[in-house]
Design brief:
The chain is an alpha+beta fold. The protein is built from 32 helices and 14 strands. Among the domains are: 205 residues, no CATH class; 131 residues, 3-Layer(aba) Sandwich (Aminopeptidase). A hairpin with a 5-residue loop joins strand 11 and strand 12.
Length: 867
């Protein structure tokens, strides 16, 4: 069998694998599976370690060692800040103050190191900072990509040197011969030198999926690589100095295991790779059963993970408070503009950390002295209930943190109430003053951020998307293991579930874990399966909307009368916007109808309404009329096709291109078919006959009625319009019909619903089409709108934008799904004038989400689209 014969099978296999990995349950299962394997390994490696021994090792750690760890942490985060300083000089030199770039890099990594890539990532923080300072998507992507490339060049350099010179101990980590090590190392160094030489020639540019940015020159690339070395060395040395002296592991070997542990932690999607990182390190270092190694790992989490996050959060809170109290001038404006977009993200992170603290402390044994003091003033039942409440509050804080990320006001209110409850539970379950003070500090920080939460959403604040859900599940699995580790000396018995005693810490841990699991299960089910495809419900059309539609010279506005839309109406009723709400987005069908000045105000109102509700906002199928306003809103303009309009002055069916319609019209006349316009006042008696034709037509199409941008057969909707019909002259039976959109001042004639009896002759539709255009010309209409041709006129060139290139590709290669080119060719036969059709939506990755939401409105989702 030839290679060509193998290719289709390989492509099909790749497509099947990709489709399998994209399934929601697979995207959840893989990282959870990795996390569970790591926790199983960690449990086995630490099975002979007692929690009391770990506590003792932590208390015996010297202040000198802690000072060294703090110094290396400072080195690492200073290097992390240099990533962005150098990257900004390469991609957007002079447009971002270098101190702001350094702050963005350091704070972004402080958050991502603490909460992981599936939570609030450092990339998202840096994107919001740079976007707030005026950088467009391509340059923001360039800054972030450059810093990531810098990390990999630094890593390649370090690994290349280690493999080339293979110092003592490195062979233990890599089961290959010294010769192979040297060859690989020299290969990595050679490739890196080649890249530096290539960059040194200058003018290098990288472009991926239509997003391009300038690559750094040789000097900047060297500085970025040095920053990466500082980052890697600092991060690894923090943990290396905390490790016990008698571990007997050299730094080269330790560094290799450290990098491997980070990689596995990222794959797990657990926040900060917690649990997975530790399991990989203990296994790689051969340190099973050592309490001092576990103590070092816990201290590493505090020093390198939580301390920088706390400093970043506190700094942003203080800066936010100062900017609210004082008028900012000069350089302070840059700080304020940089801080403002990331406040919700930091608040979400602080809330999540508060939840983690409650859950971890709830899984660990309570101090016996504190419990003894409580016995004198509180009944046991109250303490037991407080322990359960503390764990429940902890998991709810984790869940509500996504609502804070989305700037939802209700999420802020709920988070504040939960933290107050967490403060009370911390004291009532065991006089845990450290935990209670942590709750008070979190309340104070969140109170300072009050102004950042203004959105009012009807959606549940506890509903999670897949990345957040994966992170929460992985994190709770790690916390559950911490509890198992703390009570490993307690033999499991069913009776533990019903044991209520002052010293029954293990029993309380089991019961609280069950409560947490139940809460998470409910949220997971509602998050994965809770969204319902909106079912169109006919709404009453206001009289002013009817009036404005019929007066409008744009016939496309008449699709507003379908009854499946809501309306935003100007106070003086001089304009309106028709829109639909999918739950995730508010999408306008077309542009405002009516007075242009009032329409501009409505555009802003719709955008502000969507923002308050935490939803995306887009304007689907608009012309150039309001493009300046859409750009003022910060929306991106994407071309989604073209609209064909035929001038009706001196219109005729003569000519080669219109031969098909001329012949159909003539044949219909010869065979006795009669064209007729039924006024809307006389439509009611024939509606049953038209419905029968429509039902037969739908049966042949094996589909369902569309919505939003297309009208369906609805008696109330069709009653607004005159109808063009083609009758069989002998029987009087209607064989085809179409409802007519007639613009004000006879500006334009168009149609929406055009259906025929499937058993009628093949020429009836062409004949009806020809008759309507001829009739429009006789009545004095100026234009006949043939409607839109999707993706038509989109330039698929090398320098075009990403979405234009995607649209051009779909237009050229999507014939098996939809006759894009055939539809345009059909309309081109009338020699129309083509005008662009646009989508105004948030930029970046929001555009495909909007298009999917539009598809939900039109077809009811992917299932409806395939029909």
């Amino acid at each position: 069998m030839t290679t060509q014969q193998h290719e289709p099978r390989a492509v099909q296999l790749a497509e099947k694998i990709t489709a399998f990995l994209e399934k929601p349950w697979v995207r959840i299962a893989i990282p959870i599976f990795v996390t569970l394997i790591a926790l199983t390994v960690l449990h086995e490696l630490s099975s002979h370690v007692k929690w009391a021994d770990v506590q003792s090792d932590i208390s015996e750690t010297s202040w000198r060692v802690m000072f060294y760890a703090l110094c290396w942490t400072a080195v690492s985060f200073f290097s992390l800040s240099l990533y962005d300083v150098f990257a900004v000089q390469s991609v957007a030199d002079g447009e971002v103050p270098l101190p702001v770039a350094g702050m963005a890099g350091a704070s972004g990594y402080a958050v991502s190191n603490c909460l992981g890539f599936s939570y609030i990532t450092g990339t998202a923080i840096r994107y919001r900072i740079y976007a707030s300072l005026g950088l467009d998507l391509s340059r923001v992507a360039g800054v972030i990509a450059t810093s990531w490339v810098a990390f990999w060049t630094g890593l390649v350099l370090v690994l290349g040197l280690l493999l080339t010179f293979h110092p003592d101990g490195i062979s233990k980590a890599l089961p290959i011969s010294a010769t192979v090590e040297t060859v690989i190392g020299l290969g990595l160094l050679g490739a890196l030198i080649t890249v530096f030489v290539w960059l040194s020639t200058g003018g290098r540019r990288l472009e991926v999926l239509g997003i391009g940015f300038q690559l750094p020159g040789g000097k900047l690339a060297s500085c970025l690589t040095l920053a990466a070395i500082g980052d890697l060395a600092g991060a690894s040395m923090v943990l290396y100095v905390l490790m016990p002296d008698d571990l007997g592991v050299g730094y080269p070997y330790f560094f290799t295991i450290f990098i491997a542990a980070i990689a596995v932690g990222i794959v797990s999607h657990a926040p900060g790779g917690i649990g997975v990182f530790e399991a990989t390190l203990i296994a790689g270092l051969g340190a099973s059963g050592r309490s001092d190694v576990i103590a070092a790992l816990l201290l590493y989490r505090v020093v390198y993970t939580f301390l920088p996050f706390a400093i970043a959060s506190l700094s942003i809170a203080v800066a936010s408070a100062l900017t609210q109290r004082h008028r900012i001038i000069g350089a302070g404006t840059w700080v304020y503009r940089a801080i403002r977009p990331i406040v919700p993200m930091v608040a979400a992170g602080v809330t999540a950390v508060a939840g983690i603290i409650l859950l971890v402390w709830g899984a660990l044994p309570t101090d016996s002295k504190s419990l003894g003091a409580l016995r004198e003033v509180l009944p046991l039942s109250f303490v037991e209930a407080s322990h359960l409440a503390g764990s429940a509050v902890g998991v709810l804080l984790l869940l509500v943190s996504r609502g804070l990320f989305r700037k939802l006001y209700r999420a802020w209110v709920v988070a504040m109430l939960l933290m107050v409850a967490g403060f009370a539970a911390s004291l009532a379950k065991g006089l845990d003053t450290h935990e209670a003070l942590g709750m008070l500090a979190t309340i104070a920080v969140l109170a300072l951020f009050r102004g950042a939460f203004y959105r009012v959403s009807g959606a549940s604040i506890f509903r999670l998307n897949i990345p957040w859900l994966v992170s929460v599940v992985a994190l709770l699995a790690v916390i559950f293991w911490i509890g198992l580790f703390a009570y490993s000396h307690v033999q499991y018995q069913n009776a533990l579930w019903w044991e209520f005693a002052w010293n029954g810490d293990a029993s309380r841990f089991l019961r609280s874990s069950l409560v947490v699991a139940v809460i998470l299960g409910i949220v997971a089910v509602t998050s994965l399966f809770g969204r319902e495809i909106p079912v169109p419900v006919r709404t009453e059309i206001p009289e002013c909307v009817e009036k404005l539609v019929m007066e409008s010279e744009d016939t496309e506005s008449q699709i507003s009368l379908t009854g499946d839309k809501q309306f935003l109406i100007a106070p003086d009723e001089s304009a309106f916007i028709a829109y639909a709400d999918t739950g995730n987005a508010i999408i306008s069908k077309g542009e405002p109808v009516g007075d242009e000045a009032a329409g501009k105000q409505l555009v802003w109102q719709l955008r502000e309404m969507a923002d308050r509700e935490g939803k995306l906002c887009a304007f689907y199928s608009v012309s150039t009329k309001y493009l300046p306003t859409f750009l003022d809103l910060g929306l991106s303009i994407l071309k989604i096709g073209e609209v064909a309009r035929v001038p009706l002055q001196d219109f005729s069916l003569d000519g080669k291109s219109r031969k098909r319609f001329r012949q159909a019209k003539n044949r219909a006349e010869r065979e006795g078919y009669v064209f007729e316009i039924i006024p809307k006042e006389d439509l009611a008696p024939v509606l049953p006959e038209l419905r029968a034709i429509s039902d037969h037509w739908l049966e042949q199409k094996a589909g369902a009625e569309k919505g939003f941008a297309l009208g369906g057969f609805d008696d109330d909707y069709l009653s607004y319009f005159d109808h063009a019909v083609l009758r069989n002259g002998e029987t009087g039976q209607i064989m085809a019909f179409a409802n007519l959109f007639q613009g004000g001042n006879k500006s334009e004639l168009s149609l929406d619903l055009m259906r025929y009896e499937p058993e009628s002759p093949s020429f009836v539709m062409d004949a009806l089409f020809a008759e309507m255009m001829s009739w429009g010309a006789e009545q004095g209409f100026h234009w006949f709108s043939l409607g839109a041709a999707p993706f038509s006129g989109i330039e698929n060139r090398q320098l075009a934008s990403l979405w234009n290139r995607i649209g051009g590709f779909v237009y050229e290669h999507g014939e098996q799904f939809y006759h894009f080119e055939g539809l345009r060719a059909f309309k081109q036969k009338f020699d129309p004038e083509w005008s662009p059709n646009y989508l105004a939506s948030p930029g970046g990755l929001a555009a495909p989400r909007i298009l999917y939401e539009v598809n939900i409105l039109i077809s009811g989702g992917l299932r409806g689209l395939t029909k």
